Amino acid sequence: MPCRELLNFNTKWLYIPEDCGNYSQVSIDESSFEKVSVPHTNKLHPHNYFCEHDYQFVSWYRRHFTAKEEWKDRRVAVEFEGAMIVAEIFLNGEKLFEHKGGYTPFTVELTDKLLWGKDNVLAVRLDSCCHPDVPPEGEIVDYMLFGGIYRNVNLVVSDRLYLEHVFISSHDVTEEKAVVKAIASVNNKMGSEQDFVVTHRLLDQDGKVIREISSREEQIAAGETKQVLCEFEVNHPHLWNLNDPFLYTVKTEISGQDNVESRIGIRSIRFNENSLFELNGKVVKLTGHNRHQNFPYLGGAMCDRYQREDADILKYQLGCNFMRTSHYPQAKSFLDRCDEIGLLVFEELPGWQFIGDESWKQLCYQNITDMIYRDYNHPSIIMWGVRINESLDDDDFYTKTNALAHELDPTRPTTGVRYLRESSFLEDVYGFNDYHLAPKGELRRPNYHPYFVSEYLGVMFPTKSYDNIGRQVEFARRHASSLNAFYRSSDMAGATGWSAFDYNTHIPFGHGDRVCYHGLTDIFRIPKLAAYVHQSQVDAKESKPMVFIAKYLVPAYFEDHEELDQGYRGRTYVFSNCEEVELFFEGESMGRLKPDDKAFPYLPHPPFVFEVPYTFQGMRETTHMEAVGYIDGKEAARFERKISVRARAVKLEADYSTIEANGYDLTRVVVSVVDEHGQYLPFCQLPVTFTLEGPGELIGENPLGMEGGRAAVYVRSTMETGVVKLTGKCRDLDSCEIQINFVKPNGTFVS
Ligand code: GAL
Questions:
Q1: What is the model's pTM?
Q2: Is any atom of ligand 1 closer than 6 Å to the C-beta of 660?
Q3: What are the tens digits of pLDDT across the range 241-266?
Q4: Which residues are within 8 A (CB) of 66 and not within 5 positions of it... i.e. 6 or more apart?
């Protein structure tokens, strides 16, 4: 019997943004359907100033495929990783399944309904309207539930005696030894009782088998599911750590037939007697940010490449060792990347302030189950969120959600986020949003331990990438103060700021244009000045030496120098993880300083604060500023700004020059207008107009106005390989042309 086949079912879908009673039927006129790949948004939208009604409608997706004759004795199922919000699934005109809720996966069994060797039609009626009966909705929430089959779809072909899940956990972990427990859920769709043996093989990163263990022979009745536990010891395990996130592979098979691969990390987690978090017995102060899965133009329908990229931004650009998937389970590929790079995760059920009736709560229990089933094996996940974000107490409901999570996964602590200091504490860890005092150096503690601050700052000082420099520097300074307060606290396990990225939201929230500007980066993932405060907290040995001048080089005094009226000295902040920084104006040294550990005594790497002389009379026009960072007395990092005289050219920077021709892979292209030194112009709002030649698609506004001097579009592939040329033009400036290659995609696709 062949092994399990996991086929990519993302391509060759037909889509129509309207509802019609007969779209489930086999023979219909499909001429007005559009050919699409998923992840797919039911509606492309501008990055701001649009309305939720634009995407709140019913649409249909159809996919023709041949069920191969050789699959006849096998099990065939389709897995949807996420479809927003209510999906009805039909095969050859017959309704097979309905799923409510856009944030969790679902599997539809096709086996008994397929026409072998013939064309089959899978049709999805997707209702993306507002659903007060489905969490997180009920009342308005502060984020958008964009429509579409917005995550991957897979076709699974396996034996009919198959592995439904394999849950793997590590216990009694030390450097010498660890116990690994593997629970295999076996399902029998063979139609008769079966005998079977489960075998697990543990492989290291070179593919070498380190341990092999088999269960005793088991029996399973027809139509039943059976759980089989196997336990084995690993000597001298290579532990999963933040700086060395070592992943093992476990290959599980049943009697030489169905098989699945799981990636695991061997590590121990706990909150200790002092209420602090320990990874492998060592305290880790959890620092990070909240992430919404929202992208410009595409809403949630972003391919794996940029789901993964967000994890990298959090860890490497925003200095996180921890993040929160606010306020729902996020893409599988995002979590895979967190495992790979060593980024700890708190994942929570969908919800926002509102608690609904009994049937609404039933969906919450289902969401918790689906979340834990999907994500059990991720070493990066350290807590399950079992309360609706910022909801009031409901002891009966939360006793059940908490017990459910513990029953499904006894290895991880539970938590839940409140804005209240006093609330029924039913979980293991108290999540508390502290928006008030941290920037002033005070903490508002909840009444319970262990606790962590699940949100801080953004709401209190929203800052746009195009706000004036004074506000941007103040936003950065408040981040530094908040972090300082958190590091000072000896009993707070950690903190996640609100939020990593700007995101789209409904009118009552956000800042008037359907964008919430609480992020450390804008919605395009372009960093604001405050991002560098966090980046600079990571030790140079763990990342790399960096230095950043939080200032634009403009000869404007009031805007740029908040303290000008207090002695005509401008204050310039430099963020760096170096030991000393020297700042130069026109080549003249403004001093070589140590970090300001008087103002920020608890920060691992406080900002460097330079007092720079400016006078009204005879004020110099600064043309050149440079910061040099030193470690062990040697230059380790350098950052330079030069005065901009004129706009010179359009600049297009693609993150990737090669992507896959599958209709959903894409690359971001950062767009700016640059000066004669190649620097972007922070006050430029000029529109850039694009022309795209070749077999690709431009995703974004055209023309696109710069915000804070930069913005971004995406170039998405089609199913054709080839080269795409993207040109950006603006006024009489030099235009820019880049090329992106679309190559044959990886993976095995359903034909
Ligand atoms: C918090 C909430 C977040 C977000 C934030 C404001 O209270 O938990 O989801 O809405 O306010 O942006």
A1: 0.97
A2: no
A3: 999 999 999 999 998 889 999 999 99
A4: 117, 118, 119, 120, 751
